[in-house]
Amino acid sequence: MAKKIIQSIDRALQVLELFSLEKPEWGVTEISKALNMYKSHVHNILSTLEAKDFVKKDPITEKYKLGVKLFELGSVVLKEMDLRKIALPYIEKLSKEFNETVHLGILTEGSVLSIELEESAQSLRPRIFIGKRAPLHCTAVGKAIMAYLSEDEFDYIVKEKGLKKYTKNTITDVEELKKELEKIRQQGYAVDNNEHEDGVCCVASPIRNHTGKVIASLSVSGPAFRINEDNIPNIARKVKEYCNQISAKMGYTLKTAKDNVDLN
C-alpha cells in the first residue's frame, strides 16, 4: 500500500532539503527555479518555517539559512546514536596513536556521511568535518561499507550515483570495483590510495551491529606521504582491531558470524 503524502508538508521538506554544506543560503527566486514552484508558494513556506525557527532570513542578503530548530532536533538524534557514543573513545585513541584524522561514517542516500571525528593535531591534514558527504566508490570509509552491500543495493547505487572520476586512481569500471570490494571483504579493510583526492590516503574497516550487518566504517586519513605502503599494514591492523571492539559493543559476536554465513 502506497504511503499517503501530504503535499504541503512534502513541499516544505523539499525546500529544507535544498540547503547543504555546499550551498547553505537560498533566495526565494532560487528556490522557485530549483523546485519549479511558484514564488508565492515558496514565500509562504519560508514564512511558516521562519516562524517556527526552522529557517532564518538574512536581513542584508534577504536569503534564508537553516535555523536553530533543526540543530535542536539533530542534537536529539545524535544523542540517541549509540554507535557514535560507543565509537568516540576508539576514534580519539586511534587518532592519538597515529596522529592522523579519524572519522566515523555511515551510509545515507548512496553516500557516506561523517558523523564523528577527531582531527589530527598536525597542520597538514585532510579537510573532513561532521556532516560531510563523500562518494562510496573512491573513499576507504565508503568502500568499507560498499563491500558488504547486497548485489541489488550495489547495482542501485552505481546506477544512481555513477562512478565519477576524481583522480587518475579512481576506479570507474564496475567489474574492477567489484574485484576491489572482494579484496576488501577478504582482508577486512579498505584503502583509498589517492582515489578521491590527490595526495590523500585513507585506511578504513567496517563496523557491524548485533545482526552482523555492516552499519558504519572507521577511517584513518592523512597525507599520502605519511600514510603509505610502509605503515598501511600497521594502521589497518589497528583499525580492524578497534572496529571489532566497537562491533562487539554493538552486540556483534562470533555466534552472530556463524549464524550469518552470508553477511551481505
Describe this structure in words.
- The longest helix is centred in the last third of the chain and has 18 residues, at 232-249.
- Strands 5-4-3-8-7-6 form a six-stranded antiparallel beta sheet, with helices on both faces. The protein has a two-stranded antiparallel sheet with strand order 1-2.
- The protein is globular and about 60 Å long.
- Residues 257-264 have low confidence and may be disordered.
- It folds into two domains: 7-72, Arc Repressor Mutant, subunit A (Orthogonal Bundle); 81-259, GAF domain (Beta-Lactamase, 2-Layer Sandwich).
- It is built from ten helices and eight strands.
- Helix 2 packs across helix 3.
- 30% of the residues are buried.
- The protein is α+β, with helices and mostly antiparallel strands and 264 residues long.
- Pfam families: HTH_IclR, IclR_C.
- InterPro entries: GAF-like_dom_sf, HTH_MetabolicPath_Reg, Tscrpt_reg_IclR_C, Tscrpt_reg_IclR_N, WH-like_DNA-bd_sf, WH_DNA-bd_sf.
- Residues 69-252 form the IclR-ED domain.
Give the key terms.
single chain, Beta-Lactamase, 2 domains, six-stranded antiparallel β-sheet, 8 strands, globular, disordered C terminus
